[in-house]
Amino acid sequence: xxxxxxxxxxxxxxxxxxxxxxxxxxxxxxxxxxxxxxxxxxxxxxxxxxxxxxxxxxxxxxxxxxxxxxxxxxxxxxxxxxxxxxxxxxxxxxxxxxxxxxxxxxxxxxxxxxxxxxxxxxxxxxxxxxxxxxxxxxxxxxxxxxxxxxxxxxxxxxxxxxxxxxxxxxxxxxxxxxxxxxxxxxxxxxxxxxxxxxxxxxxxxxxxx
Length: 209
Ligand code: B16
Ligand code: MG
Known about the structure:
Blueprint: E1 4-7, H1 17-31, H2 37-40, H3 48-58, H4 68-83, H5 95-104, E2 108-112, H6 118-125, E3 133-135, H7 148-157, E4 164-168, H8 171-179, E5 183-187, E6 198-200
Helix pairs in contact: 1-4
The protein binds 1,6-di-O-phosphono-beta-D-glucopyranose and magnesium ion.
Residues 8, 10-12, 44-45, 169-170, 173 line the site of magnesium ion.
């Protein structure tokens, strides 16, 4: 059995993926181009600066001499406007019951997110008390699909990688879990998540055993 569960934040516990999409699109539109929801899949689980590089590539603006730090800050400010309106109702269906059941079974839990805003989102939604460890975008250097974030989470929980189960909505996150030697549950649609050990639509569809 698994001793530890590691949860991605965005797309697994809360639906901030749509906020990221809206904010990146707003930036792209301001720069004079657009990108699709399908392209947006590639931004999931990827760090802010790497997401910016991807967006600029779509707009063929890599060589435009833009102030990237400034653009990333702008996108983040728009994103935070949406996050500020979040509350406990924005926790995805089945999440609280699942986290409580995990605790009741003695399973240790960690957050393993690429986001630098993870703690703010946990606070706003009332999820902060449910995790024994929080490893976020401020604590890691290498972005998913690199396994750093999940290996750090396992270490913080005192669990071996093969005793950890990761819950992820992004292909980059599933790849990171596999690279860490962990099992992975994909959250979303099966066709979009390759190499996951199991794929479900959401945590509401899962029971601990
Ligand atoms: P921030 P996760 C990731 O969160 C998002 O999926 C990804 O779209 C975002 O670019 C990344 O966090 C960085 O977020 O700009 O808030 O630091 O899915 O790893 O929880
Ligand atoms: Mg995610």
